[in-house]
Design brief:
- With 261 residues, the protein is an all-alpha fold.
- Helices cover 87% and strands 0% of the residues.
- The model has no long low-confidence stretch (mean pLDDT 91).
């Protein structure tokens, strides 16, 4: 198409350069008419024939140019759709590759969530681009085999599939984030409980009154710490129960962990 357009530009230059000769013909004809030339009828008829051929040539060139430009726009649109398809396949491949990677700790999950945010943004941009290309296609006449329409249908189907994959991954990553936050809280509570158990186990029974008072104060301090911790533990257990009730992918492990706590 680009080669044909280059050739067309050359033809247009040749025709423009030839136009002066057509104008000269009109001038000569007018002069001979004014001189009442004996063969003026034949000259006038020849001029009419030349003018008709010249007009047909200009119209043919205009139509050919219009068709080439339309075809150029059509194939540029087709190429743009191919590029969009390649970009979407890259997103799909990335989602498939990371589908089993939900993170082994909170900071890793945060990294995956940040990456997922970029994926969703790219999908949003791709969706806008696809809508723009669809609008462009409506202004064009498709190929006889509906090349553009078929590509648009395939791209819409592909985008819908990838958006569904991205949605599922976002949900799983958020569940992973909740899971690791819960496990970290549980680990912290377990450490606290073990520390309290060790402290209590190391308290010896005394017989002197003054020592008894001191020990009672120690027990009061321990009791205060335990009571202060209790709301946080209850909150963690409620968090675990909510995850189980919402069918978290690790609901069995969560239930066992909360039960142990």
């Amino acid at each position: 198409i680009n080669a044909a357009l280059t050739k067309l530009n050359s033809l247009e230059l040749d025709i423009v350069a030839y136009e002066n000769r057509i104008n000269d013909l009109a001038t000569i004809t007018q002069f001979l008419e004014a001189e009442n030339y004996y063969g003026i009828e034949e000259i006038q008829q020849n001029k009419i024939n030349v003018d008709s051929l010249w007009l047909n040539l200009q119209n043919s060139l205009k139509d050919y140019s219009s068709q080439l430009l339309q075809l150029k726009d059509l194939y540029e649109l087709s190429s743009s759709l191919d590029q969009l398809q390649a970009s979407l396949f890259e997103v799909k491949e990335s989602l498939q590759k990371d589908s089993d990677n939900l993170g082994n700790y909170s900071t890793e999950v945060e990294e995956y969530l940040a990456k997922q945010k970029l994926v969703l943004k790219n999908l949003e941009n791709h969706e806008i681009t696809l809508e723009e290309r669809s609008n462009e296609a409506q202004q064009m006449e498709d190929t006889p085999d509906n090349l553009i329409q078929d590509k648009l249908i395939n791209l819409n189907d592909l985008l819908t599939e990838i958006k569904s994959m991205a949605k599922i991954r976002s949900e799983l990553l958020n569940q992973s984030k909740d899971f690791h936050n819960l496990m970290e809280n549980v680990e912290d509570h377990n450490s606290f409980i073990k520390q309290m158990q060790t402290t209590i186990a190391n308290i010896s029974i005394v017989t002197e009154f003054s020592e008894i008072v001191s020990q009672l104060r120690n027990f009061e301090r321990i009791t205060d710490e335990i009571q202060a911790r209790q709301p946080s533990i209850i909150e963690t257990l409620n968090q675990g129960n909510n995850l189980v009730e919402n069918k978290h992918y690790a609901e069995s492990q969560i239930a066992d962990t909360c039960s142990t706590l």
